[in-house]
Amino acid sequence: MKKLLTLIICFLLVLSFSVFAGGKKEVAPEEKAKEFEGVKVSVVAHSGHHATPWYDEAPVLKEKYGLDLNVIEITADEIYSRVVLELTQRTGAYDIVQYNSAWIGDYEPYILPLDDYVVRDNDAIGFADLLPAFNKAQNLWGGKKVSVTLDGDTFLFYYRKDLFQDSGEQSAFKAKFGYALPDPPETWQQVVDIAEFFTRKKGEKLAGRTLTKDFYGYADQAKRGRVYYWYLFRFVPFNAPDPHYFDPKTMEPRINSSGAVAALENMKELLAYSPPGVLSWEWDELYAAAMNDGTVCMWIHWTDEGRGFNTLAPLAVESAPAPVLGISASPGVEVGGKVYQYTIVDSAWVASICKDSKNQDAAYAVLKHMFGPGPVNLGYIMDPQIGWDPSRYSHFNSKEWREKIPGIENYLELELKALEQGYPMLKIPGAFEYNDVLDLNVSKYLAGDFPNAKAALDVVANRWNELNKKFGAEKQKGFYAKIWQ
Amino acid sequence: MTVKKRALMLVLPTVVVLALIVIFPLVFSLSVSVRAYDIRIPEHPFIGFGNWISLLKNPDFYSAVLVTGTMILAELFFELLLGLCVALLLLQLPRSRKIFQPILLIPMMVMPVVVGYMGRLVFEVRSGPINYFLNMLGLESLCWHASPDLALITILILRIWRWTPFVMAVLLAGLLSLPMEPYQSAQVDGANIWQIFIHITIPMLKPIITLVVIMRSLEILQTFDIMYVLTMGGPGAKTMTLSLYAYITGFRYWDIGQASAAAWLIMIPLSIMVTLFVKMMEKGEKIEQAK
Amino acid sequence: MNKRNKLLIRKTLISIVMVLIVIVSLFPIYWMLLTSVQPRHELMNYPPNFYTRHPTLEFWKFTFKESILEFFNSLVIAFFATIAAIICGATSGYAFARYKVGGDTLPFWILSLKFFPPVVAIVPYFLMMRTLRLIDTCTAVIITHMIITVPFAVWMIKGFIQEVPRELEEAAMIDGCSQLNVIRIITLPIIAPGLVVTALFCFIWSWNDFMFALILTRNKAMTIPVAIAGMREAHGLMWGEVSATAALGTIPIIIMAIILQKYLVRGLSLGSIK
Known about the structure:
By secondary structure, chain B is mostly helical. Chain B has 12 helices and no strands. By secondary structure, chain C is mainly alpha-helical. Chain C has helices spanning about 1-35, 60-65, 70-100, 105-115, 120-130, 140-165, 165-175, 180-210, 210-215, 225-230, 240-260, 260-274. In chain C, helix 1 (about 1-35) packs across helix 11 (about 240-260), helix 6 (about 140-165) packs across helix 8 (about 180-210) and helix 10 runs antiparallel to helix 11.
């Protein structure tokens, strides 16, 4: 018994020593010629595929500048809180932070504006090259350039064009609803009709062929945490022609307006035509069901599907027609004979330099290397594995990309067109809570915890008022105005 | 005197170390629970019992209490029932027990984060094995942790899977240590198995069952990991437990004042239970000493 | 003859039931291991595969490349949190049991720390570790783990020592043994299974902890549970990779528990009767 104990302890000791030994690294003497020789730059990145480019470029940066890149990965669940903690406590642990631009209200005091650098090196990082929709919704804050977009995330509406083009279905649709099957659908009411029309069981006919799986008209990515996005896609158009999160004059929440209620009801209505389990779906479940299984007719997602248009699976029917992916701006709402459609510009990932960083110049050099116009950045944008979406004119107009993937120009141009109607997400201090409160109550409503949509949104409005009070309503009004500047 | 001093010297390092570790967080959380404390706002004004009151007015807090209470009741019931059944079965197999018992303890070794992940794997809606079995039996696939009605049940199944072995092991140890005499005299009196079980086994197991109840309730009150990985409290707030609620309030919304108040509200039932726990242990000791 | 047969049938029936229970309780673990060695194209198929003809180590290679640092961090943290707990537990547990230091209050105070909700402590601990400049070190995580492991060990070991008859020690003392020798020769061997179990439980607790490690580490001192929780999303769940990492985080504990199972069962019974 004693022997065994000793054995185990020895084993553990050896293991632990091997760790300490492995931790030490030989520092080879080298000539001090490079610009940032020996400087360590720590960068916070969203864990997973988004972090890959940083790892890949670390040796290149070492070669070019002599600096060491230290990549700190944080999961999407924790990245906001974790970074707030480090920034507010001024640990100086981060030089570059990757964050969702919605959080700029909280990060602002700790972020270094890039305007001076841009003036000094004549915009080498290429702010002029960024699409205005992204530049405005993500980089500018109160007129200052606080960050550079790394992921041109936006949301597009996708649909099965192969199904929409089937003449048998077209005439059946017209017979049932009295209007021609719209391609693409323009209003949420049309989406409800189409979703109802195309939701069919395994064994029934779809496009004249027998379904091998259940087929659903529509799907959201409705897991608690990010389901509020899918609500906002409705909230904004349902409040056309002048959608606002708050009354810009009084800062009174508009989240429980009659339009907002109709938007939430639309969401619940479509749940009936959605696959079972959507309430726990995250990115990969929706992507897999829509792109790999061919069991979803319409959905809204980030641009990954658009870039991967040529990997769309055929419809889940016997001897399916060739798959075609339809892309358009999110459906809108008709007000006074005019259809208002918007494309929500995700307040997606941007990168900034921290004020507390001791190596700001080196950090700027890293940003320039990673995001400045040129082959390095374009390479990652073109790689569908990375998840950095195009955000610059040089991406959208890239000859290389269009040559490499024939047909991509269709997607690039449709996205450019959709972005003309870009609409920003909420960006004020505490945006995370504002959105999360919305998310929680939308999720509760979909789970059947509220008698009606109005009750759920009233709770949100109350909480938003409390949050306004907590951060100071007047201050928040000023920040809210900054979104539109 | 010197012996006393030496004994004190033995205890001192532990006490000092623990005090150093624990004093700051304790004082911090108490002082913060009466302030509007948000890490992003430089001022932390004193608001008295404001945090406590707004917490007690918050329906989300009550729903977390309800979820946690349901979990405690359901888990205790099923873990004790299953644990006792398995322990009684094992008792019938004196020889092969040595093989079965360690194998049955394995689920208890799996880390909660992994349990949550396994839940995603086996309860997967489209291609998980559990739904496959359901389909084989001619039933519809269920959405498990995605469904508002089943999410809590899914969590409970996973937690019961992980913790029943522990309950079983403790109960088995208790059963094995029971004295033989009452059984022999009962058999002489011609009692059947069921009567023996109700009138002799259960009463004698009572202290151990109480102990299990308290230990498990304490663990459930603090639990967090499986929900964090599997549902994040959703759908809606169907699986939002008290400690997850405190975590989200304090670490997502940065309402650290309110989170601390919530934690102290958790501490009250906790300390009552701890007192019970210790009282019971002392009682056990006295019985032993009396023997 | 008849009675023996009956008994035999009963035992067989019970054994069959037990085997079924074993299958149910091991199934999720088997499923995870299976997922970790299946080739990517076989994952998440319907109907699911219950075995694979083409096992691959692709995901395990990935895990060993990506998560080995986290694995060793976990090992170091759990090891030292356990050692600290056993040292504190043995010294003060002995003093509590034999000399009644601090009466009932002090041991009670120490025990009640075990029930301190970790959720409240994470922010103050972050502030504390920042001041000490210990963030992202194993030391920080070890210190915070001690708040759970030390009280647990003190309480357990106190109980075990109380079980050793005092007369045994006194008799040896009369025979001329020094107190240290008495502890070494008499007390320690008797409570050894208890110590092993206590250590095992401390180790498991520290190994499994998620919250403290999540808040107090950045990347250099990250532990296995945090790594697993982090891999869960990215872009789409990497079923194979996560399964391999989760298995890597589970297997050492299971192996350890199986090696120590003799003590485990005895120690559990020792501890729980108290």
